[in-house]
Amino acid sequence: MILIFIITSILCTSSDAFECRGTYKTDWFDRDNPSGKGDYENLVNLRNEYPGQICSNPIACEVETTSGVPASDTGDNIPQCTISGGFACVNAQQTDRICHDYRIRFTCPESICNCKTQWFDRDNPSGNGDYEDLENLRRQYPEQICINPTACEVETTSGTPASETGDNIPDCSISGGFVCVNSKQDDGRCEDYRIRFTCPESFCNCKTQWFDRDNPSGNGDYEDLENLRRQYPEQICINPTACEVETTSGTPASETGDNIPDCSISSGFVCVNSKQDDGRCEDYRIRFTCPESFCNCKTQWFDRDNPSGNGDFENLVNLRKEYPGQVCNSPTACEVETTSGIPASNSGDNISECSISTGFACINDHQNDGYCGDYKIRFSCPGSFCSCKTSWFDRDNPSGKGDYETLVDLRKEYPGRICSNPIACEVETASGDPVASSGDNVSDCSVSSGFVCVNAEQDDGRCEDYRIRFTCPESFCTQP
Q1: Domain count, the chain
Q2: What pLDDT is stored for residue 55 in this prediction?
Q3: Domain check: are 135 and 186 in the same one?
Q4: Cα–Cα–Cα angle for 62, 64, 67, nearest 5°?
Q5: Of 322, 347, 381, which one is at a domain's C-terminal end?
Q6: What whole-number distance in Å separates Cα of residue 444 and Cα of residue 51?
Q7: Judgement on whether residues 339 and 368 belong to the same structural domain of the protein
Q8: Does 198 share its domain with 274?
Q9: Which of 268, 285, 263, 275 is nearest to 215 (CA)?
């Protein structure tokens, strides 16, 4: 059995940061021990326990024991690791009934290095020097720097790399930032520096919709943040980490030939007609990258229609009617995938992107084979939409046929404590461990029926003991 995938190149790492050259390997992760049902180094839980430290799309994985013995040499009866699921060793499937203790690491593509913060210049070289230290940067720019930067760069405010200035300075540090001390320079004064950080992919994945609030009539095209916030309340985070501008037809602003500044996370973007050679700006739109917390509030997946008749219509008007209170008033983003979990962009269907104002539709007549896939949709909402949660409920134990945390029975045993129309639900073991770490064969929880684990469907014939809680509309937590 071969557990190691072939890779083409390896990223060179140091104790403080990494450089991006081709592919690179993550740290070794050991999140579980072979107690209970086995050793579960599954990707879902690894991402939960090591946020931002594993790329979105690994290209290979390796498994070995915590003492460094390749998994293929242990004699355990185990599957290969997978880049989509990770790795699991089940005790019951071993001759001696116990797995070795394993660890896993992943190979990631260079694209993980594409997530960078803005340039920060919080200090000038007056006083003792230029202090672009991470502690003060975090205070001055809350949520705009990731918790675990992977690399950093320093240059002067005019764009000269720090290594070319001649100043006597240390390299920047992902844990400390950067400092230039005046007294250590031959001329007694540092250059004025700025710093930026490379962050895990997840730090850059939270993006708003594209906004186009103005046309280039009058003085120009004003996509300024003050007016955008008025026109689109709650749809832009308090502290954006980056912004992008392009024409309404999708051409990057840098390629239009217009005389324009870069967009700003504090003010947005403006193109002034009088500054253009032809006296008129293009029509632009803007979007912002936000802290991960801004995108963490998501609805359940909705599948209200099948691709019979004219197509598959997951439109927002009907979704609100069929699922009252379960979609926020002002969604900030939306996602669509097939009911089997394939992203809409990979389905091969001829479809438009989902819309936070209208939802999604796939029309059969627009497809080469005359038939759409079956799709589902979910929305990202302002954080306040997810703030109302019930207590954890554990109404059953895994005796008899299994552990039944069904909504019908929960409502009987806990009258008035669960809202009429839950928005989302979560399940974990009674001791607080994620479902995925249990190794049980179970379905996701459902806002309409709750959760069930059937003993007969488990390898060892018995479920863990589970508990469930629900996210409810805000009004449920504010009622007298």
Answers
A1: 5
A2: 77
A3: yes
A4: 145
A5: 381
A6: 21
A7: yes
A8: no
A9: 285
The CB density around residue 148, as the number of other CB atoms within 10 Å, is 14
Instruction: Give the pLDDT score at 185.
Output: 96
Pair (228, 281) in one structural domain: yes
Q: Is residue 19 part of a domain?
A: no
- CB contact burial 394-432 (16+ within 10 A = b; e otherwise): ebbebeeebbbbbbeebeeeeeeebbeebbbbbbbbeee
Tokens for 287, please give them.
């979007």
Query: What tokens appear for 440 in the block?
Result: 């049980």
Which pLDDT does position 203 carry in this prediction? 81
The whole-model pTM stands at 0.59
Which distant-in-sequence residues (6+ apart) come within 8 Å of 23 by Cβ? 7, 8, 9, 10, 11, 59, 107, 108, 109, 110
* Among 321, 448, 478, residue whose Cα is nearest residue 387: 478
Residue 23: what pLDDT? 62
The last residue of one of the domains, among 262, 292, 322, is 292
| Confidence at residue 10, expressed as pLDDT on a 0 to 100 scale | 29
Q: What is the pLDDT of residue 75?
A: 93
Q: Where are the beta strands (DSSP E) in 235-280?
A: 242-247, 268-272
Averaged in consecutive runs of 10 residues, what is the pLDDT profile of the chain (480 residues)? 30 39 75 92 84 78 95 93 91 94 87 79 95 95 85 94 94 93 96 92 83 94 95 87 93 94 92 96 94 83 93 95 87 89 87 91 94 94 86 94 96 94 90 81 90 91 94 82
Taking the C-alpha atoms of residue 414 and residue 406, their distance in angstroms, rounded to an integer, is: 12
d(CA 1, CA 75): 10
- 3 state SS of 254: helix
* Domain, as residue range, for 157: 129-204
Q: How many helices (H) and strands (E) does the chain have?
A: 6, 21
Cα gap 296→94, rounded to integer Å: 39
Rounded (5°) CA angle 386-388-394: 110
134 shares a domain with 82: no
